[in-house]
């Protein structure tokens, strides 16, 4: 019985061109912390290395810990004193990155419609950002964090997409079986992998990411109207 819908965020509920988003994000981050003595290219390389550590996290620490371990290894433990400046960035300058993202009112309508069907909703966004940045992006999409029962962030997660363990952790946290869940996302590699655990999946194609050109006809796919129709059909199957 379908009970829960898990939503990706970037490119799913929040329309964006991923490359444009990353470019704007890094531009603003470098500008904010360069006065503290961070050379731009080295800082960007460090952020990417920290991201890779989170993606490869084996569950032995939180993603937050994995990231800052890389940062400390590259800059020295004493540089962790600058963490408040990075935290402040997400509350301030990062908010301007909303300008390169879109908004689709159908996203909010779909979340509300699915909840009106009696389904639980959780946000299964790749947990490589702090809570502040994640909650901000939820609001950029025209939604509120309170609309979701649970939101994955780098503070509360020990794995990342596309590792199936990320989805297993989420199932454990929510007390769910895989077959109860529908994972909705726009990234073939990161989101459709939930299927390997036995979850149902839906590929939202508005901002499709499919770098290997896989045949998407193997998965239910389309826009938000198609998602709602698919959810209704799944619920009807169990009546």
What does this structure look like?
This protein has 239 residues and is of the alpha/beta class. It has 2 domains: 151 residues, 3-Layer(aba) Sandwich (Rossmann fold); 80 residues. The protein contains 9 helices and 5 strands. It has a 5-stranded parallel sheet with strand order 2-1-3-4-5. β3, α8 and β4 form a beta-alpha-beta unit. α2 runs antiparallel to α3 and α5 runs parallel beside α9. The N and C termini lie close together (9 Å). The mean pLDDT is 97.
Q: What are the SSEs and their pairings?
A:
Layout: E1 4-7, H1 18-33, H2 40-55, H3 63-75, H4 83-91, H5 105-116, E2 120-123, H6 131-140, H7 164-174, E3 181-185, H8 188-191, E4 200-204, E5 221-222, H9 224-237
Parallel strand pairs: 1-2, 1-3, 3-4, 4-5
Helix pairs in contact: 2-3, 5-9
Cα distance, first to last residue?
9 Å
Helix content: 40-55%
- Which second-level CATH architecture of the largest domain applies? 3-Layer(aba) Sandwich
- Strands ordered across the widest β-sheet: 2-1-3-4-5
Which overall shape is indicated by the principal axes computed on the Cα atoms?
A: globular
The CATH H-level superfamily of the largest domain is HAD superfamily/HAD-like
Could you tell me the strand content as a percent range? 5-15%
Query: What's the helix count?
Result: 9
Q: In CATH's first tier, which class of the largest domain applies?
A: Alpha Beta
Classification by helices and strands: alpha/beta
Q: From N to C, what is the helix and strand string? A: EHHHHHEHHEHEEH
Tell me, rounded to a whole number, the average pLDDT.
97
The CATH topology of the largest domain is what? Answer: Rossmann fold
Overall domain count: 2
Give a short account of the largest sheet. Answer: 5 strands, parallel
Low-pLDDT parts are none
| Number of β-strand runs | 5
**Using only CA atoms, what is the Rg?**
18 Å
């Amino acid at each position: 019985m379908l009970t829960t819908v898990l939503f990706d965020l970037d490119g799913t509920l929040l329309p964006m061109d991923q490359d444009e988003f990353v470019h704007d994000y890094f531009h603003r981050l470098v500008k904010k912390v360069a006065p503290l003595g961070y050379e731009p290219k080295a800082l960007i390389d460090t952020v990417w290395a920290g991201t890779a550590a989170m993606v490869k996290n084996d569950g032995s620490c939180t993603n937050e810990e994995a990231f800052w371990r890389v940062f400390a290894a590259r800059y020295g433990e004493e540089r962790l004193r600058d963490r408040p400046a990075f935290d402040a960035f997400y509350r301030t300058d990062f908010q301007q990155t909303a300008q390169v993202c879109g908004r689709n009112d159908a996203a909010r309508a779909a979340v509300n419609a699915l909840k009106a069907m009696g389904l639980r909703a959780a946000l299964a966004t790749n947990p490589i950002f702090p809570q502040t940045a994640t909650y901000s992006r939820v609001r950029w999409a025209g939604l509120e964090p309170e609309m979701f029962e649970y939101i994955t962030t780098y503070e509360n997660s020990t794995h990342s997409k596309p590792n199936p363990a990320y989805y297993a952790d989420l199932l454990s946290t929510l007390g769910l079986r895989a077959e109860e869940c529908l994972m909705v996302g726009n990234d073939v590699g990161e989101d459709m992998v939930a299927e390997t655990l036995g979850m149902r999946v839906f590929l939202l194609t508005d901002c499709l990411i499919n770098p290997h050109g896989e045949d998407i006809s193997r998965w239910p796919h389309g826009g938000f109207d198609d998602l709602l129709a698919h959810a209704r059909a799944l619920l009807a199957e169990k009546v």
